[in-house]
Every structure is written in C-alpha cells, then in structure tokens.
Automatic annotation (TrEMBL):
The protein's name: Fructose-bisphosphate aldolase
GO-annotated molecular function: aldehyde-lyase activity; zinc ion binding
Tree of life domain: Bacteria
Keyword Transcription applies: no
Binding site for dihydroxyacetone phosphate: G194, G228, S229, S230, N270, I271, D272, T273
Cofactor: Zn(2+)
Upper classification of the organism: Bacteria, Bacillati, Bacillota, Clostridia, Eubacteriales
Length: 324
C-alpha cells in the first residue's frame, strides 16, 4: 500500500539507519523499484522530481512543462504506483522531489502523492520558512508528509549547473523545524547533484552531527536528508565510455561515508544519477550487441534475447534493460 513518509522516518530515526529515496521518470522504473524492495522486504521510497512529473504527463520538452503537464504526470505515476503498491506487502511512499512552488506541490498532493518536498533553498531564510509552512499546512491536513531544504547544493538541478555549495548552518536547523513543522530536511553538507561531484569528495559530517545534536537538545523530532548521494560506480562509467559514451570527470560519494552519516540523523539518501548511469550502460550494451563478445554476468539474459533475435525491434525488449 501507499503510505506517507513520516512513519518510515520515525523508524529510521529510532534505529539509526537510512532509507534510499530513488528517483524515477517512468512507470517501468517505478515497477522495478517496488519489485526490488519487495524482494529485500524493505519499505520503498519512490521519488519523481517536478520536471519528471511534467515528462510523465506526456511533455517530451519537459524543461518547459506547464502546471497542467505536471498535474497529468502526477496522476499518471500515482495511479500506476498505487496499483503496484497494492500488489505487494511492503509500504510504498510516492514522494515529490524538489517541488518548485506551492502550485507544483499541490498538483502532486491532489493527484495521489503521499509525500512532497518543497525546495525553498534559494529563498531567504524567512521566505523559505513562510513557503514551507504554507506547504506543511496544506499537506499535513491531507495526511501527506513534507521535506524542506536549507542550504544550496552544487551540481545540476533542473538542468541548471551551479559550482558552489552553500552549506547548511546547523544553528538554523532547529528553528526551521520549529517554525515550519516539516517532517524532514535536506541539508547541504558537501554532496552535489549529478555525476561530477569531484574526486574523493568528503562529506562535511560535522554539519549533520551538529544539526542532529541541536535537534536532540531541543527535543524536536527531525530527520535529515542527504541529496546528491549517488556513488557513481567507476566500472559503470568506464563501460558507458567503452560503449561509445563520453562521461568525463564523474565521481560520486563513497558508500562508507553514506553509511557513517546514517548514525547522525540522515534518514533518507537520494539517488538519481546512479540509476541514470545504470540505464545508460544497459541500453548502450543492448544496442552495441556483438555476438563474438562475452556478455557480462548481469546482462546475460538480455544478451541471450539479442543473440536469439538480432532482428528484434519490439520496444518491450528495450524496456527490459531499463528495468534491470
Ligand atoms: O535532484 C534532482 C534530481 O536529480 C532531479 O532531476 O529535475 O532532471 O528530474 P530532474
Ligand atoms: P544524485 O544526482 O547524486 O543521484 O542526487 C539525486 C538527488 O539528490 C535527488 O533529489
Ligand atoms: Na535545492
Ligand atoms: Zn536533490
């Protein structure tokens, strides 16, 4: 069934672990995320960003998605996710990632999302508080959880690249939770969106530690969210490039660092880039079929399909590597 994010945060907070928040852009990916979580007997958090909703509403030119496109997309994905979620016995959260404004968030809530992020991180503190509080009021009245953001991440967001991070001020975190009533908060602490996070990036763990300590001290429940946390596996980048791709200077966050912050208040870890890379690798391998080359273990099913059918042109065959 579909559930809000809040109960998952309470559990991860209590036991000191973090859930993955996995971004999707299609029903095929959503189904895959639900299936793999069901396999591991874990609650699932599916996320779609604002523009992903526009895309799933049928807008190919998703950068120019209108509110109408977002409404359609939210309805499409929520209807499909609800169907799949009702067929498994794990809790499934459908979360809006980086909601831009009140109207986009409302489009998600009104069409079946169980959790939303309002990203007011580019606003002044007081305006961020005001917008977030307005969203919390609308969402909580409808049983929907809310994530806010304080501080600005470097990297690509909505196709806009920014070089600089503005780290979250841990002294402001309590005040933000208190004034807005959010269930969780994205912090900026050294991670970055996209594949170019920099070599050997070190998470500024002390920002999470200090934020969480302040919350504990004030007796406020509050979970922190780690955005820009893809690990960018080098073997996948290399395989993409061997298959004709050109992804340069791509480095992620180490698993060890991500593990270590789960003990310091990080209850959700957002992953989008790793999924995009995995899909790109698989699709490239699919279309670069070479019957004389030995298939990698993970792709042997796809390769056997291709070997049997080099003349295949059924799109369902291409959806298989996406799901995988
Ligand atoms: O955090 C941002 C996500 O990677 C969403 O990306 O706006 O291209 O869907 P998108
Ligand atoms: P990555 O680009 O590291 O996957 O981060 C995704 C994210 O933060 C989505 O909100
Ligand atoms: Na942001
Ligand atoms: Zn993000």
């Amino acid at each position: 069934p579909i559930v809000p994010l809040r109960p998952l945060l309470e559990t991860s907070n209590k036991y000191g672990f973090a859930h993955g928040g996995f971004n999707v852009n299609s029903v095929a990916q959503a189904k895959a995320v639900i299936e793999v979580h069901s396999m591991f007997r874990s609650a699932a958090i599916l996320q779609a960003a604002d523009l992903a909703n526009g895309f799933m509403g049928g807008k190919a030119d998703f950068l120019n998605a209108t509110l109408e496109d977002k409404k359609k997309g939210a309805k499409n994905i929520a209807t499909a996710v609800k169907k799949y979620a009702d067929q498994v016995d794990i809790p499934v959260v459908l979360h809006l990632d980086h909601g831009k404004d009140f109207e986009s968030v409302k489009a998600a809530i009104d069409n079946g999302y169980s959790s939303v992020m309002i990203d007011g991180s580019h606003l002044e503190f007081d305006q961020n508080v005001e917008l977030t509080r307005e969203v919390v009021k609308y969402a909580h009245e409808r049983g929907v959880s809310v994530e806010g953001e304080l501080g600005i991440l470097a990297g690509v967001e909505d196709n806009i690249f920014s070089n600089e991070s503005t780290y979250t001020n841990p002294m402001k975190v309590c005040e933000f939770f208190k004034k807005t009533g959010v269930d969780c908060l994205a912090i900026s602490y050294g991670t970055a969106h996209g594949p170019n996070k920099g070599k050997d990036t070190k998470i500024r763990k002390e920002i999470a530690i200090a934020s969480k300590e302040n919350l504990r001290h004030e007796g406020i429940f509050g979970t922190l969210v780690s955005h820009g946390s893809s690990t960018v596996p080098q073997y996948i980048v290399n395989e993409i490039n061997d298959l004709g791709g050109n992804i340069q200077n791509a480095y992620g966050i180490s698993i060890d660092q991500l593990k270590s912050v789960t003990k310091h208040g990080i209850g959700k870890i957002n992953i989008d880039t790793d999924i995009r890379l995995a899909i790109t690798r698989n699709i490239r391998e699919y279309f670069n079929f070479n019957p004389n080359k030995k298939a990698s273990e993970s792709l042997k099913d796809i390769w056997s399909i291709m070997k049997a059918k080099p003349d295949a042109f059924d799109p369902r065959a291409y959806l298989t590597p996406i799901i995988d």
